[in-house]
Amino acid sequence: MTNFIGTYECKADTKGRVMLPVALKGQLAPMLQHGFVVKRAVFQNCLELYPMEEWNAMMLKIGKLNRFNKKNNDFIRRFTAGVKIVEVDATGRFLIPKDLVTFAGISKEIVLSSAVNIIEIWDKEKYEQAIDDATGDFAELAEEVMGDIGGDELS
Questions:
Q1: So what's the pLDDT on residue 154?
Q2: What is the mean pLDDT of residues 45-57?
Q3: 20 touches 88 (CB < 8 A)
């Protein structure tokens, strides 16, 4: 499993093209030839960039869902809505499709933020607002999410 590190500010041009920051491009280098999938995030108005290997692993999990269960079928449809394959060109640029630019409200200033095995793509103002909104209750959230995990389980 890939573990990305860092948060990077960059720009999108009027066509939705983004130049990968050098440090992030270095982390993505082993995956460049396989391509990526970009999709709408589930919980936020941002996008998620999956290396193809991570996307295929996710699809294996989702493929095990019973499609004759309406909730499962609805989830699959919503999870995969707007999914697009993207490639990084020789100069380190990739294109965010227009419908996904609109969904995420992306303007010129964007943030590429590591989220363990994927990269979140945010409009800069929306990213800063999401971080500010989460600051107040982060201690409670950390305790709730990580509080029952012992030291042995983390190492």
A1: 55
A2: 96
A3: yes
